[in-house]
Specification:
The protein is of the alpha+beta class and 504 residues long. It is 29% helix and 27% strand. The protein contains 13 helices and 20 strands. Strands 1, 2, 7, 8, 9, 10, 17 and 18 form an eight-stranded mixed sheet that branches. Strands 11, 12, 13, 14, 15 and 16 form a six-stranded antiparallel sheet that branches. Strand 9 and strand 10 (203-214) form a beta hairpin. Helix 1 (20-31) packs parallel to helix 4 (158-171) and helix 8 crosses helix 9 (421-431). 49% of the residues are buried.
């Protein structure tokens, strides 16, 4: 039974969507002193924002489609973001083997030269040419691959990026509502009246806001048509990107970027120490974005693609986990998903009040800059206090220098000698300087409470529930962490049951 409606809460901005863009906008606005309400229909980062290739990068291949502005902006952001979150993001040296049947060496070298310098690189090292016959990266490759190129990009724990932005927003006064569906919104005088339903409690709530921001990712067009009941000339192109995870395929820590004869690229990236992440595909998607799955055909495509390069072939039987997400690419009329722009469009309706801003497209690396632009656009039609402030400002736990994680890991093991090396590294790479706050006064493992498996303790789960909006076992093992790769289904079920009881 639906619970009674409460009196309306009022805010400056109501944001629909708890992905990276929605949470980034909420953080920026709340940090300026604006009142913010954000509603996410599921868990934070439950859809596209946790299904990426998990990179802060400029998009090397976008240079072929003359997306120079997007690449430059993304490369500038790459180092800003790295500095703000050195616990959940770190540099990696990618190896691009030269395939003699595809792009010529001079063209690759030219592209990498542009990639090195178009974004004003300061922290990361430049490209260099490799002799794969005498380099560690060559040992896992077929002997045909003699020359390679090594360049810099950055890894990021995508779902944690979203959650930490949401947490920062909440600590600055934003109301973050998870598992809360916007059932409708309409203009009423000077305000948007927004109605929501909590999918857990079934509570219906009404809110009022001076502006409405639709950052619902692949649902952006559905929200406009179905929830707002209006039309828009812009739309998104839904493109499914699938990934597979296998046991660790190589004996070193460098990722690969492989070129294909279909003009696509696929990454093979070290993942969670013991695994390799392979992706991504690009396929037109129909149906609900929430129903996206990595099909057998896509999984086979990825296996075949990397098997053209690797000495040891990869087959479907090697896959331990697969996932898929739908990217909401701005529909620019491109002939294929590969050619569709990765740029974003911010559409502000200035002809009607109160204002509506729809976010079309975007990529994870540009989320912070996109958030700034949203506030700049809204400033044309409503008061927006403060200046741009988020560049280089650390997310929770990220208040240390790039490259400082090993020192923090060693320090943590001294203070908490019961931690194994892998456990300490996981805690620092997840919580950064806040790992000590999580562990508190613990002197032995038992002081952390229940052991749920794979080093996940009761103390950590309580932290995630209290500070990071986690409500279910899946939230914890697949988004706040990736411990689902190492836990059994019975362990996850027990965790979920315990969380359900603890929340009552």
């Amino acid at each position: 039974m639906t619970k009674a409606n409460k009196p309306a809460d009022r805010a400056d901005i109501f944001i629909i969507g708890g992905g990276v863009n929605g949470c980034g906008i909420a953080r920026d606005a709340a940090g300026r002193g604006m009142s913010v309400i954000l509603a996410e229909q599921g868990d934070l980062a439950q859809a596209t924002s946790s299904a990426s290739t998990k990179l802060f990068h400029g998009g090397l291949r976008y240079l072929e489609y003359y997306e120079f502005r997007l690449v430059r902006e993304s490369l500038i952001e790459r180092e800003r973001l790295l500095s703000a979150m050195p616990h959940i993001s770190w540099p990696m040296r990618f190896v691009l083997p030269h395939h003699r049947g595809l792009r010529p060496k001079w063209l690759i070298r030219l592209g990498l030269f542009i990639y090195d310098y178009i974004g004003g690189r300061k922290i990361l090292p430049a490209t260099r040419t490799l002799d794969l016959r005498h380099h560690q990266a060559g040992k896992a490759l077929k002997p045909d691959f003699v020359t390679g190129f090594e360049y810099s990009d950055c890894w990021v724990q995508d779902a944690r990026l979203v959650v930490l932005n949401a947490r920062d927003a909440a600590e600055n006064g934003a109301k973050v509502l998870t598992r809360t569906t916007v059932t409708g919104a309409k203009r009423t005088g000077d305000f948007w009246t927004v109605t929501t339903r909590d999918s857990v409690t079934n509570l219906v709530q009404t809110y009022e806001a001076k502006a409405l921001v639709n950052a619902s990712g692949p649902w952006v067009s559905d929200v406009i048509a179905d929830k707002l009941g209006i039309s828009s000339p812009e739309s998104v192109r839904l493109v499914r990107g699938s990934h597979i995870v296998t046991k660790r395929l190589v004996g070193h820590d460098q990722p690969y970027i492989f070129q294909g004869s279909d003009n696509r690229i696929v990454f093979v990236i070290p993942f969670e120490k013991d695994f390799s992440l392979i992706g991504t595909t690009e396929a037109e998607h129909s149906g609900s974005p929430g129903d996206a799955t990595c099909t057998d055909a896509e999984a086979q495509y990825l296996c075949d693609f990397v098997s053209d390069y690797l000495l040891e072939p990869v087959s479907l039987s090697d896959i331990l986990w697969r996932y898929s997400g739908v990217r909401p690419l701005y529909d620019d009329g491109a002939s294929s998903a590969t050619q569709a722009t990765r740029d974003y469009v911010l559409s502000l309706d200035k002809n009607h009040q109160p204002p509506l801003l729809n976010v079309f497209g975007g990529k994870i690396t540009s989320y912070r800059h996109l958030s700034e632009e949203v506030l700049t656009k809204l400033a044309d039609v409503m008061p927006v206090p403060g200046k741009n402030w988020t560049a280089g400002v650390a997310l929770a736990g990220g208040d240390f220098a790039v490259g400082g994680a090993p020192g923090l890991i060693a320090e943590l093991r001294v203070q908490y000698p019961f931690l194994t090396a892998d456990w300490a590294e996981r805690l620092i790479r997840t919580y950064g300087t806040e790992a000590k706050l999580l562990l508190g006064a613990a002197q032995v493992t038992a002081d952390l409470g229940i052991d749920f498996g794979a080093t996940l303790s009761e103390a950590e789960v309580k932290w995630l529930m209290a500070k990071e909006f986690a409500q279910t076992g899946e939230d914890v093992v697949w988004r706040r962490t990736k411990l689902g790769l190492k836990m059994t289904q019975s362990q996850v079920t027990a965790l979920d049951k315990w969380m359900g009881a603890a929340a009552k």
